[in-house]
Amino acid sequence: MTEKRVSVRLVAEGGRQVRAELTGVGEAGAQGFGRLSREMELANTRLAAFARRTAIAMSAAAAAATASLGLIVRSTVESAAQIRQFSQIANATPEAFQRWSAGARTVGIEQEKLADILKDVNDRVGDFLQTGGGPMADFFESVAPKVGVTADQFARLSGPEALQLYIDTLERAGLSQQEMTFYLEAMASDATRLLPLLRGGGTEMARLGAQASSLGAVLDGDALAALRRTEVALGTVSLVFEGLRNRIAVAVAPSLGALASVFVALASEGGILRRSIDALGENLGRLTTYAGTFAAFMAGRWVAGLAAAALSVRGLATALVVLRGALIRTGVGALIVGAGELVYQFSTLVARVGGVGEAFRLLSNLASEVWSRMGLTLDAAFARMGAGWEGLKASGL
Predict the structure, then answer these.
(1) Could you give the CA distance from residue 314 to residue 331 in angstroms, rounded to a whole number?
(2) Nearby residues of 129 by Cβ (< 8 Å), 6 or more positions away
(3) Would you say residue 344 has pLDDT above 80?
(4) CB under 8 Å to 112, separation ≥6 — which residues?
């Protein structure tokens, strides 16, 4: 019996322990899942914020890329237009001119200057072919016959080809550096700077041009044609906006004209604006005097009050309250205006009589006259009062 009771007790205690363990496992699991849920929510919040920042950055990058592409296209279109213009001046194909431009840039000659040099070469060749004279006359008399070069060989050459043949002829004739400089400068100013590139048949110029072409710096005919179409399209868009601007201007012009007419009428003689301006001009001296009087009042009355208040920190608040009440009771605004008017009138009097002393003398005379007349008036009043009293007494009162 004892063994059975012990077994039952052990089983009961074991069951309670298992249930407690399971309860603990359940609570721990609930806490773990709650923590996991919070971590997931925090992770989702961070991912959403990152996604928003990424979207903003991508939008900004797309806008910047679009603007950059627009600038690149416009710059390339303008460059292509310059290439067409310069190559025409130089009497060269656009591809050949770009190759020479790439080489000339290494010796400090830009596209525009290169086009001017080749233009001068064409001009010199054409001058000799037409007149038999010009800067190339000495060349064909003294240099070209030594190597069997004739003017006909220059007749059908482009600008770059003519300059290359010219330098080749000078080299084959065995001219010194000084002589080559003389002949090159006679052809075109600064043409000597191209000599290092065009010696030996122009191998260095050809190498630099080929390098530029391999790097994509040389636009071929198809690319130039496409950019030309783009240039025309952009020009058409500009015309559209110009037409829109003109239409807006035409529509708004009548209203602006009417507004201008009204403004002119207001500013003309008899207009409200003209009268206001005239009144302001006539009273400008008076307003200036008011302002000076106000400033003097501020500097004298208020600064003195502030200085006195500063001597007694304990009574500062009380002094300010008393000062404010005094200003309110005495009507400081009316006082300032009245004082200003008095100063202004006195200044006018001084200006009219010619001096301060004369002004005070006139004021003194005026005061004497006023007091004299006041005395006469009082004497007459007292005389009338006496006569009335005598009349009353005569009546028996």
Answers:
(1) 28
(2) 151, 154, 155
(3) no
(4) 86
